[in-house]
Amino acid sequence: MDEAVIYTILGEAGFTRMVSAFYDRIKTDDLIGPMYPPDEMEAAEERLLHFLLFRFGNDPRYQAKRGHPRLRMRHAPFPIGEAEAERWLQLMDEAMDEAKVPESIQLELRSFFTMVAHNMKNQ
After folding, report:
1. pTM
2. pLDDT recorded at residue 65
3. Annotated binding residue 68
4. Which CA distances in Å does 12 have to 48, 72, 79, 83?
5. Rounded distance, CA 110 to CA 79, Å?
6. Count of CB atoms situated within 10 Å of the CB of 42
7. Sign of CA dihedral 68, 44, 79, 59
8. For binding heme, which residues are annotated in this chain's numbering (predicted)?
9. What is the predicted pLDDT for the residue at 72?
10. What is the pLDDT at residue 75?
11. Which of 6, 9, 17, 64 qualifies as a FRET site for 110, CA 20 to 30 Å off?
12. Contact between 96 and 109 (Cβ < 8 Å)
């Protein structure tokens, strides 16, 4: 499925709901939560939202603030192994369900998120 189709179906509001639901889970997660300092949580949420809007909707906000995503480099300081990648995916799956992301695009998003999560592993 084309990224533009996903963006058309979900829209900025849908991505915002999904990212918000995801970060609500991060705040209380015992494995991944400690990687996010409480005073950085809001900024991290905004970065993920803008990244997804850039990736799927060609929205310029992420690049205007951060330049090229360079995700692996940006995540290098954090210990990310199989357990962390799988938990990230679990929390994102739960967030998609809570945000009522249509099933017609959940599989495509899950495929993208799986690729990204496993590419971040450095342990």
Report:
1. 0.89
2. 79
3. no
4. 12, 25, 30, 30
5. 22
6. 10
7. negative
8. 118
9. 60
10. 66
11. 64
12. yes
Question: What is the domain partition of the chain in residue ranges?
Answer: 3-119
d(CA 52, CA 63): 11
The structure tokens 């995801």 sit at: 22
Per-residue tens of pLDDT for the chain, all 123 residues: 789 999 999 999 999 999 999 999 999 999 999 999 889 999 999 999 999 999 999 888 877 777 766 666 666 678 899 999 999 999 999 999 999 999 999 999 999 999 999 999 999
Q: Show contacts of 67-75: CB within 8 Å, 24+ apart.
A: 71/116, 71/119, 71/120, 72/119, 72/120, 72/122, 75/120, 75/122
Strand ranges (DSSP E) for the chain? none
